[in-house]
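Progress against Task 2.4 (sequence-to-structure conversion) is shown through the following example record, which the project officer requested during the mid-term review.
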Amino acid sequence: MAQRSESVLAAPTEKLRMIEETRHDIRANHPIRTLFHQLTERGMGQLNLHDPDTIQYITNLLTEFVYTENMCRIKKEFGRREEYLFSMLAQASSTVSPSLRRDYYKHLGDLTLFNLGLFPESLTYGHRTVSPEYYAETGRRSYTIVAEMDSSSRGTVLYRKLSQQFKQCVVGLNWVKLYISDPFYQFMFREFEIT
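Structure tokens generated for the chain above:
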């Protein structure tokens, strides 16, 4: 009996996955991808950033986060959504599996880039005040960690660029936010049933 309880205790805790898989419900040829690509090109173009890999990555990020469940992939112990950046970082740093750890840090980089670019006011809303500088540093560091862990040279280069150009990507997304607020794009979102 003692052996049995030891084996239960020795079972890996990562079997209880605390980061969910991303939903891929928007097909590759969906018009919203084209719209986000055009908006991202325009936003990054304002900063003379014309790197196609970075633009495509941010386009995919915007498309992926159309579904809010994809923004809330990191869970607490009992399956509830984790809300605090510090707790997400703690989970990421304590994860043993390299691929799972990479997923955590990639998600953290994506989440911080998205929030700083489109919803910076959410960092100072209510009782949850987070320094934008801390948030940005967490995003940059997360992409650096992913670049170091990535096995493909193309992925390594992309995540290094995201880390090094994090601030410019945030400003580019600020431009995207301005475009999204335009009445024409509001009409397009209604047409695509995105609102």
